[in-house]
Structures are given as structure tokens and as C-alpha cells.
Amino acid sequence: MSIDAEPGGADTVIQEARAQSGSWPAVRPGGEWIAVRQDGARLQLWTGPRALRYQRIQIQAIALAFAVGGGLLLRLSAWAWLAVAVAPVLWALASRLAPERPLVEIDRHAGLLTPLAGSGAEGRPIPLGRISAIAGAWETFGWSSRSAIYAIDGQTERSLILALGGTNDAYAVAVCAALGQELGVSADYTGPSGEPVRCGVTPTA
Which residue of 48, 82, 89, 116 is 20 to 30 Å from 41, comparing CA positions? Predict the structure, then answer.
């Protein structure tokens, strides 16, 4: 059961946020994994410099695997040349394939949290007043994995805010901590070890 608000108008909110966010000042970092940009009552969490380096290194590692693997298979198959040819292209395009991007917008005037990364809750806004906590969890789907960040309403209801591909506990914890801090709610993350880590603030009564 979702706590998402009605989706009407969400596309307009996202488009306006993306159009304006490029000129927003970075008011404070989130441990280098997250950058916070604010314009009045509207605040956005962006990928920080450390997250960008991590994502681009991943792409370059794939490019290196293509080059080495293709080179080793050249004697067995002519198709291996394709992998060798693709490798330098991937390497050169790493910065374009992993660009700086907005992840989440918090609009305190409208009272909404809106996923912006395209991999969360399809851009549908979530009312801030119904978010009681932030919870992150490492999830696997066959051979792939992700760090999913959820907004919690009460004990059972949750809505997906963001899905970070791969396994990077530090990045996921930084996102949870930033959201918990900005929303004033508790936040925790459960990684591959299965042990939850408190990464936000616990509001006082």
C-alpha cells in the first residue's frame, strides 16, 4: 500500500525543478556523496562529487573488462573485436553516462517530497506530513542489486523514493542521513550484513 499523493501535476513539478535546478547554489555538502541545493522553500538533493567519481569508475571498470576480455578472446572469435572497439568509447563517455543529477526534491511550501532521478516512485509526490521515517535497504533481484530508499508512514506503509544501483553502503547511508536531517525524522539503512545502521536523526518530542 503506497502513501503517494495523487500523481496529477507531478510531471510539471519535475520538469520545472530540473529546468531551474542548474542555477541553484550548492548550500552545503552531504559528506561529498550528496550535494544540497536550495531555492527558497524548495530544496534538492543532488549526486555529490564522490558519488560521481564512484559511478564513473564503475563505467571505466566495465570498459577495462571489455578491453581485456575482448583481447583474450580474439583468437576464438572475430566478435571479440567488437568488445575491444567498444571499450575506449565507454571509457571516454564515462562522464556523460554518469552525469550530475538531481535525486529528490523537498518542497516545504507545497508540503511534498518528489523523486527526481527517474528510478524511484515514478516522480509521484509524497506528502511530507505523512513521512514518519526514512528506511534504506540493500535488495537483490537475481544477479543485480540496488540500495532502495523508502519513506515510511507508520509501521507498515512505505513508498520508494530512490533506487541506487549496485552495492555502495556509504552512498546509501549518506542519502538516508541527508533525507532524515532535512525532514527531521529518523533514518536507518540495512546493508548486505543485515544489521541496520542509524544514519539520521531521532526527533525529540
Answer: 48
Beta bridge partners of 137: 148, 190
Q: Domain range holding 74?
A: 53-97
Strand partners, 104: 45, 115
Across the beta sheet with 157-165, the strand order is 157-165, 144-153, 133-141, 186-190, 196-198
Is 205's pLDDT higher than 80? no
- The reported pTM is 0.70
Q: Is residue 1 part of a domain?
A: no
Reading the block at residue 191, the C-alpha cell is 546493508
More confident residue, 141 or 122: 141
Q: What is the DSSP letter of 187?
A: E
The mean pLDDT value for 104-129 works out to 81
Same domain for 112 and 83, yes or no, is no
Q: In the chain, how many domains are there?
A: 2
Element (H, E) at 39: strand 34-39
In a domain, 205, yes or no: no
Report pLDDT for 134. 92
- 170 is a domain residue: yes
What are the distances in angstroms from CA 43 to CA 59, 84, 152?
29, 43, 20
